[in-house]
Amino acid sequence: MKRIIFACLLFLIAVSCATTQKPAKEEVDAKPSETEKDVVVSEFILGVGDEVELTVYRHDDLNKKVRIPPDGINTFPLIGEIHTKGTSIHQLRGKIKESLSAYLIDPQVSLEITSFKGQKIFILGEVHSPGVYQVDTPTTIIEAIAKAGGYTLDGKYNSIVLIRGGPEKPELKRLDLKKTFATGDLSQNVFLKSGDVVYVPRTFISDVDRFFKHFENIVRPLAWTEQGILLGDRIDEEVFHGRIDVSRTPIVISPP
Length: 256
Prior knowledge:
By secondary structure, the chain is an alpha+beta fold.
């Protein structure tokens, strides 16, 4: 419930950004913050309920389709048990190939995801259709934004914020998809995990920690209920300028 409430709070930013009629703000503080961490390419990580199919060239008896169980351990022909949960396809393929090498000469191993457990992601801010999206296949940020109708004219796709980990210990990163489109740098186009929040801002955000601190200062004085979150409108301006007006008519955002 906390994760849903946390994401719903950000959903209001998207609604407010879409309805505010003021011209787009100028980019500010474009120099990258020292607190920002470089983003490395993120391969899709297997989780409970995902299904993978193993194919070993010229060894049909070793082929097998498995679903990741809660304990994260699957049994494969000839090589026995392997820990699958929390590993990438590339890592798992390497484990299987290494184990098979004890019995076969240079085994040719293919491993594919055949079924992906549906997960919810949140695409918010300056996109045409912000909201909660159910994904059934491994999805990158670019693919997720496309699901939300793409950027608006005000969207700064060189300063996208990825929020991961929930409200207790959120991990925030700024991604530059402009670099991906211009140079083919795929390190910015990370795979998303269940519960991830992707926020496309209206202005350039150079310091995501400062951005989130402003956001927290606005959220804490407002009321949270089991039915939803009570928030005032135009919260996008308040995030950047710190103006809080609790007298405004609240909007109820119900959790999905």
